[in-house]
User: Fold this.
Amino acid sequence: MSELTITDQRLKPVAEKVLAGGRLGVEDGIALYRSPDLLAVGWLANHVREKKHGKVTYFNVNRHINPTNMCVAHCKLCAFGRDPSAPGAYNFSLEEIYARAEQGAREGALEFHIVGGLHPDLPFEYFLEMIRGLKQRCQGVHLKAFTMVEVGYFARIAKLSTRETLLKLKEAGVDSLPGGGAEIFHPRVRRIICDHKVSGQMWLNIARQAHEIGLRSNATMLYGHVETEEERVDHLVKLRELQDETHGFVAFIPLAFHPDNTALSHIPKPTGYADLRNIAVSRLLLDNFDHIKAYWIMLSPSIAQIALRFGANDLDGTVIEEKIYHDAGAKTSEFTPRYELERLIRAAGRVPVERDTLYHPVDRSKLPPPVRPDLVSLTLNV
Ligand code: V47
Assistant:
């Protein structure tokens, strides 16, 4: 690894703590966000990343399934949710969902990432039935399903506690929860970007309960809209505190705000600089998280690749069909085949390792051959 050169004197005490393996505080986080010396921030994050994972960079073969975009929440940040009567509103039938899933399983997906709108009419039982049906049809596939926001909504419509709701989801076959809906926990920001959604405190409570009953989850942070640097640091520190308690978070994914087609379309998109800085600061503040994902869908494959040198150790994933970011104007493709993920990782001087949702390495030779080798084959020469 190259030597660290720091041009910003305010970073010196932060660097000393990082190199000594110490925990960073709120002021350190703010210094990292404000420093003009992005390369030093990135160097420090890469130092931590290499200490944890060496050159290994994970990726997974997954499929996103968004059962419906009908949503009662009307979050200003979102371009995906619709009223049922709005143009483009959809609601897949269970048979359509199963068909997508079975195709994904045949193609070699080992994870379904399932999130959708807060549907105005469908009962909780419908979603339990969906999960039972998926589990029955696609036994080898991990179901990473429903954000804390959806869990909070299911609890409300089913008149159950959030703990009972989580227990029912687990019993039906949910294996873990994705990290979406966290946005920024601070109430000032939530009032502006997602005022009808569960509060930040509630998101954290539901995550705590999920972890307590043995459902692990991811966590996210949506940056680049109306939040301040202090509010980002506060968000990260709250996640770190909960992780100290439960150790239930698997990975953290910083998400760049995409303004197109949202009620906040006047806000400019985050720059590449902001993307790399958020990856790096997350890596440095979240010292008790094992994994930081570079989600190429929102970063672009090029920035996601560079992020592998700024603290990220995972290039998530093949994805296959993505709606939330593409409705908000993302110009990335809707999927990236496995060989391309591997090529990007190798070209960044890293070693690609296919993982499952909980970061166990995957040995494809022990699995049935997929029908779409271009998506999952190890052997394609590129
Ligand atoms: O919850 C919504 C965000 C999330 C916009 O857990 C937007 O492995 C930007 O959570 N611009 C969904 N962001 C994506 C997500 C995710 C992605 C990849 C992996 C995992 C994981 C989780 O996207 C939403 C919300 O926070 N979002 N609208 C928008 N206009």
The CA atoms of residues 259 and 267 lie 6 Å apart.
